[in-house]
Structure formats: structure tokens, C-alpha cells
């Protein structure tokens, strides 16, 4: 008698505890796991979709199913907005740095722009940050004159972009070279913030279509405020 055979007699013996339970077939286990994985992937196929992307699927997905994910995205947006405290690029001084940057970064991400107002690349980056700040008010954007932050900080290193989070420096970008040079866009900087952990990939999706936005496009809106802010460091 083969105890591994699928016979009625063996089933009776197994039910009585006389024979041990039959070992599951490895192929069957793998097939079941694959089916479960495919079902889970199908169920979660909309998990990372933005509201705009969900709207584009109206003809492909069930309305009730889509609405579940729309509601999730709206709730996530409400939660982000409930944490929103900022919305502008705030000038800070060296004595304020520890509190405004290091300490505050224990609770929120803080983006620091070290600038020199005579450097065109600094003006470009500041204009971009002025665009990003109201888009992501949960992030604290600040700026400080480079030589005020660090004595004799070389102009060749500016602009310097620092991203703080969890009470520590998470990422630094020296000059615009790594971001796109003088062609750096709002989307380029947003991607850098994703890389640093300050934003999620889905949060910058709307910027893809407007990635040509840069300082020149926002200069007229921000020029007066920037000049006033820079004067604070004279």
C-alpha cells in the first residue's frame, strides 16, 4: 500500500490519524501563490493612480470601483492639506537656522536654498521654489544668503539646495548642474525632492505636462517679493 496515493482508504486512515497528512504538491502550491499574486495585483491596480489618471479610466473601469479610489485620493489630499502650514519661501537668518531648519525638520521636511543674489542660477532656483511652495504647503521652504549661513561660502557652490527631514540632512544639491543647469524646471526640482523623500512620485505627476515652467515664467509674479526678501540680507 502506497500511503501517498489518493485513495478512499488512505483518506479514511488519514482522518483517523493512522496515516500522516499528505504533503502538498509543490507545483500546486506555486500555482496557487501565482493566482493569489495576480488577483492581488488586479485588485490594487488603481492604488497609485492620481485623480486625473482615475478620470481617464472611466470607460475601462466600473464606476463604483473607481469612486472608491477617488474617495481615497480625496481623503489623502485632505490629510495633506490638514498638515499644510507654509506655502511660501521664507527668509531666515543664521541665528534662526537651528530652530527653523534642524529642529522643525523633525516634524516636516524643510528645503533650504543657500543663495547669492547676484548669481543668475540662484534667481532661477528661487523662482522655481516660489512656484513649488504653494503647491506643496506641507513642506517648509526657506532661503538664506550663503555667506550668512557659512562664513566665506564660495559663490561657485551656489545655489545650494539642502533637504532636511527627520531632524537631519537628507540630500544636498550643489549648484544647478545636477538638476538641469540654467534649463532647470519646476519638474526637475520636484523630482529632486522625490529623490530626497520630501515628496512622493504621484504628488508631482501634474507637473510633468508643465515641466517647461521655470523662473522666467514666474519672474513677473515673484520679482517684487524676491527683491524685498534679498534686501533683508544687505
From TrEMBL:
Output the GO biological process annotations, alphabetical, semicolon-separated: protein folding
Q: Which residues form a coiled coil?
A: none
Disordered as annotated region, ranges: 210-234
The residue ranges flagged as biased composition, category Acidic residues, are 223-234
Q: Quote the InterPro entries the UniProt record gives.
A: Phosducin-like_chap/apop_reg (IPR051498), Phosducin_thioredoxin-like_dom (IPR024253), Thioredoxin-like_sf (IPR036249)
- This protein's GO CC annotations: cytoplasm
Q: Where is the Phosducin domain?
A: 43-210
Q: Which residues form the signal peptide?
A: none
Q: Which family does it belong to?
A: Belongs to the phosducin family.
Q: Write down what this protein is called.
A: Phosducin family protein Plp2
Q: Which organism is it from?
A: Schizosaccharomyces osmophilus
> Which taxonomic lineage is given here?
Eukaryota, Fungi, Dikarya, Ascomycota, Taphrinomycotina
